[in-house]
Amino acid sequence: MIGPAPLVWLGAAAIIAAVLQLRRAWGLSRRSVLANGMGWALMLLGSLLALAGDGAWGLAVASLFGMACAALLLAHAAWTSPRGKARASERKAHALPEPGEPRHIGRRLITFLLTIPLAFAASLLAALGARALFAMAGLNDADGNAIALLLLPLLWGALAFWLLMLSTRRAQLICLAAPAAGGLVLTLVGGAL
Amino acid sequence: MRLAISKDAVQRALSAHAAIGLLASALLYLICLTGTLVVFYQEWQRIEQPDAPEMTAIAPEAVQHAVASVLAAEKNKPRTTHLYVHMPVEGLPRSTITTDHQAVHIDADGKIAGPEENSWSEFLLGAHYALNIPGLVGMTIVGIFGVMILALTLSGLVAHPRIFRDAFRLRTRDNHGVGLADWHNRLGVWTMPFSLAIAVTGSMIGLGVVGAYGLAGAFYKNDIEAAYAPIFGEEHAADARPAPLADIAAPLAWLAHNEPDARLTYVILHDPGTRGQHTQLIAEHPRRLIYGETYEFGADGSYHGKVGLSDGHLGQQLAASTYNLHFGNYGGLPVKIAYVLFGFALTIVVATGTSIWLGKRQRRGLHEPRLRAGWDGVIWGVPLALALTLLARILLGNGAPLIAIFWLAAIAIPLVAIVRPEPRPKTLLRRLLIVSVTACAAAALLGIAA
């Protein structure tokens, strides 16, 4: 079997160096933009080298080295961590009502409907709209369809998160309606349906 | 300049993180755990059936002979529509023929060696892929959980503003939940590239059919095959009139001669023994994420071209890369081991998420033994149920009702724990798990030795 290209090894080494540099930077008593920047720059450089060496395969392999390096540093931190007296967080997540608090079952059910089925529908329409837009821009069907299949989960995940960050139903409905309407219009303009 | 997230946004993100986490936790944990184990799908098959014939390569003529033998053995059954030959590869050096009716191993001479017996590996794959739910429903549900991981990652990042700053601090010896939170946050941060890759590819695979139906409805007059065709190639028209068996040896020889670096993984014969039959070869390309390139041949063995997964449109290459990137099949055993370690880390992140939430409630004075015991039942009951299925497979054979055993145990254990929460079931379940895993290992080793 042919081994990875030399650039992949270089990329992996740069990503490992990036993890080590970030550890140093994040351990400083004061935040240093330069130290942090060096870490992220090494990460970017390593990724680009691995990509240049063996494409997506090279990047996937090199990133495993970075994660493995971080795992070893974490294992060391776990092993050497002294017994502490820190109190754990008691931040309320408000995921379930505390005793005596109203259950708000209807409100929770609506939130579920917005973030799961409706956000799915909006994401699908937006993904189809993007596909129609790409087709109008001259992109071939293979690229357009693959992008639509990739966008569907990405948009849904982002939309589900963003909907839960909004404080009013009105804002949530707008957040759902915008990509859905945009996607539908583009799909219709693109000659589909 | 310093970017800061408002307190209100942090609190909302924490609520979102907890809400999604709680909604998804039990099944997400099951999906992550089975996904971690199924990385060794090939190796499990070798453990399940240690006496199947193995070989590093098989001659084209032997494959031709084997296909003819298998089809001859099925002459009294409805004609198979697809015939797959799994070719010997590094992780699974076995030749196996699968039709609509059976799956058999063949030896290096092309003789039928006996039935394939890999029901546990298939059960495990089915549990991860579709929660053992037949059809597209299970796969789509699992795809939704991939989306949930994406949303959990986003909300987790916003909910923990110091998550990168503290990324190397792991206070394992702190009480009161600090250690648990550190494990959750640190493993979450450092496996993030892996988790995002797994989540995006998993949700693409799981929701792929739903997305394809959308594409078909919008752009291809509801023809789902037409929606897939630009990426994976077109299905040929069937012609059911009988014909002599296609020449399979010639395509294999063609590939060896013209693509010497490609590693053949599958031979697919469509509509064998009919005038519409044609052959596809799936071959891996070294140092690529794609599962393989598809080479097309006519019934007479003539080369008709390739689909373009290796060098066609970027969309084709992207779609073909999702499977290997998801299952860790792109770099041999070292990558598989890395995937198991990171997969296990992701499983711990999911498991500790709900434990952290329960711990916070407990520290605020909420005594909820049933919730706590139920979650113990999930964390330790699911692996225990998996171990029981493996034990059943080894002791009862390939026909053991694995799906029934698993789901009965995986549902009953948390329920019993909820009904009878005291004493806390964690210790008992842990011990049972250790005993079961040890029994599995002993039984498997005895089986291999025998």
From TrEMBL, chain A:
<keyword id="KW-0472">Membrane</keyword>
<feature type="transmembrane region" description="Helical">
    <location>
        <begin position="109"/>
        <end position="134"/>
    </location>
</feature>
<feature type="transmembrane region" description="Helical">
    <location>
        <begin position="146"/>
        <end position="166"/>
    </location>
</feature>
<feature type="transmembrane region" description="Helical">
    <location>
        <begin position="33"/>
        <end position="51"/>
    </location>
</feature>
<feature type="transmembrane region" description="Helical">
    <location>
        <begin position="173"/>
        <end position="192"/>
    </location>
</feature>
<keyword id="KW-1133">Transmembrane helix</keyword>
<feature type="transmembrane region" description="Helical">
    <location>
        <begin position="57"/>
        <end position="79"/>
    </location>
</feature>
<keyword id="KW-0812">Transmembrane</keyword>
<protein>
    <submittedName>
        <fullName>Uncharacterized protein</fullName>
    </submittedName>
</protein>
<feature type="transmembrane region" description="Helical">
    <location>
        <begin position="6"/>
        <end position="26"/>
    </location>
</feature>
Automatic annotation (TrEMBL), chain B:
<feature type="transmembrane region" description="Helical">
    <location>
        <begin position="402"/>
        <end position="419"/>
    </location>
</feature>
<feature type="transmembrane region" description="Helical">
    <location>
        <begin position="194"/>
        <end position="216"/>
    </location>
</feature>
<keyword id="KW-0472">Membrane</keyword>
<protein>
    <submittedName>
        <fullName>Uncharacterized iron-regulated membrane protein</fullName>
    </submittedName>
</protein>
<feature type="transmembrane region" description="Helical">
    <location>
        <begin position="337"/>
        <end position="358"/>
    </location>
</feature>
<feature type="transmembrane region" description="Helical">
    <location>
        <begin position="20"/>
        <end position="41"/>
    </location>
</feature>
<feature type="transmembrane region" description="Helical">
    <location>
        <begin position="133"/>
        <end position="159"/>
    </location>
</feature>
<keyword id="KW-1133">Transmembrane helix</keyword>
<keyword id="KW-0812">Transmembrane</keyword>
<feature type="transmembrane region" description="Helical">
    <location>
        <begin position="378"/>
        <end position="396"/>
    </location>
</feature>
<dbReference type="Pfam" id="PF03929">
    <property type="entry name" value="PepSY_TM"/>
</dbReference>
<dbReference type="InterPro" id="IPR005625">
    <property type="entry name" value="PepSY-ass_TM"/>
</dbReference>
<feature type="transmembrane region" description="Helical">
    <location>
        <begin position="431"/>
        <end position="449"/>
    </location>
</feature>
